[in-house]
Amino acid sequence: MTAAPADRTDPDVALVLAAYDAYARGDIDAAVADLHPDVDRVEPEDFPNGGPHRGAGAVHEYLSASYAMWSELHSEPVACRSGEHVVIVHHVHGVLADGNPLSITAADVFTVRDGRIVGMHAYADPSEVPNRWLSSAR
To answer: I need a surface site. Which of 9, 62, 73, 123 has the fewest CB within 10 A?
Structure first.
């Protein structure tokens, strides 16, 4: 991904980054507060609990299970803007609940409309993000 980091004063970028901050501190209620009730979230099938998650309740369950896998979590999201999309390259590192260290970098593409997150698609490798979501951010 070659897009430049987004301006944190952009309200949609701020909204998405606030969700990452909430997740990193374990506040799942705050992490899902700005989701549309019918949000569609798609995680890679090879991620734990991966696959599609439809609705704010399903996303809350997914994020709760995901957060529970960590005993120590450090989250470093970097955002770029592409039209109505906010693209996040997310470096996560720490110690899993089983004591093993883990360091990963993934990418998440959010669709934000009217101040609500209506969609999110995750990619295990940031280079897999389709160019159509990056073309206007370059």
So the answer is: 9
Question: What are 7's two structure tokens?
Answer: 């301006």
Gyration radius from the chain CA atoms:
14
DSSP string over 48-80: TT-EEEESHHHHHHHHHHHHHTEEEEEEEEEEE
- pLDDT of res. 83: 80
CB 23 within 8 A of CB 75: yes
Residue range 31-58: mean pLDDT, rounded = 94
pLDDT confidence of residue 87: 94
Half-sphere exposure at residue 26, Cβ-oriented, CA atoms within 13 angstroms: 6
d(CA 115, CA 132): 22
- Rounded distance between C-alpha atoms, residue 31 and residue 19, angstroms: 4
Token duo for residue 20: 């990452």
Query: What sign does the dihedral 135-90-78-52 (CA atoms) show?
Result: positive
CA–CA distance, 110 with 73 (Å, rounded to integer): 22
Q: Tell me what the mean pLDDT of segment 15-23 comes to.
A: 96
Say how far apart CA 73 and CA 92 lie, in whole Å: 7
Closest CA to 39 of 128, 122, 116, 91: 116
